[in-house]
Design a protein that fits this description.
This protein is of the alpha+beta class. 25% of the residues lie in helices and 34% in strands. The radius of gyration is 20 Å and the shape is globular. Substrate binds at residues 8-11, 66, 123, 127, 131, 191-193.
């Protein structure tokens, strides 16, 4: 067995105190997101999305947050993907933003709902053309024999759409996660980390400190 027990570090970048908490977790989420972007950490909008299949087996993968406001967190994906099938059967999801460089993470629970086509079309039009074509190429989560299959299909479609716009695939869409809890974690000295859990009840947010 490989022993990794000696790998450790101290957390000294700062704390999180109740007096610093806004009434709404969205305000703190926006502040931390802005600070993550300003710190130029790698992929600040990357979030680990957890879903559960029909057998209760959890799955996780990284998706990119594209928009957010107090109505929810928005991401886009192939609607034939494994994650989309899980959401269809069980809309309850969890996401984590692992901002290790800032000794922070945000864990969010909620329910995912499909976006209207108009919103998907609007975003799809902003993607680079190669990314639009890539959406057509991949039947996400399906088995393929080799990468060459993807490369060949991409070149074929790139030629097909060379002189025109790339239409929205019928199997491509997005989701809005409507949160019911936010947990903000800030690393602390001597492993006395700061954790605050915001919970939504009757359209009001309440915050509780959790032991590390």
């Amino acid at each position: 067995m490989r022993d990794l027990s000696e790998l450790r570090r101290d957390y000294k970048q700062g704390g999180l105190r109740r007096k610093d908490l806004p009434q709404s977790p969205w305000k703190l989420f926006e502040l931390w997101m802005d600070q993550a972007r300003q710190a130029e950490i790698c992929d600040p909008t990357a979030m680990v999305l957890a879903t559960v299949d029909a057998n209760g087996q959890p799955f996780q993968r990284v998706v990119l947050l594209k928009k957010f406001d107090e109505n929810g967190l928005v991401f886009f994906t192939n609607t034939g993907s494994r994650k989309s099938q899980h959401i269809k059967d069980n809309a309850k999801v969890n996401v984590i933003f692992p901002w290790n460089d800032l000794e922070r993470q945000i864990a969010i629970t909620g329910e995912a709902e499909a976006l209207p086509t108009s919103e998907v079309v609007s975003y799809f039009a902003t993607r680079p053309k190669d990314s639009q074509i890539g959406a057509w190429v991949s039947q996400q989560s399906s088995k393929i024999s080799a990468r060459g299959v993807l490369e060949g299909k991409f070149l074929e479609l790139k030629q097909k759409f060379a002189k025109g716009e790339v239409p929205l695939p019928s199997f491509w869409g997005g989701y809005r996660i409507k949160p019911d809890s936010f947990e903000f974690w800030q690393g602390g000295d001597r492993r006395l980390h700061d954790r605050f859990l915001y919970s939504l009840q009757d359209n009001d947010w309440s915050a509780e400190r959790l032991a590390p």
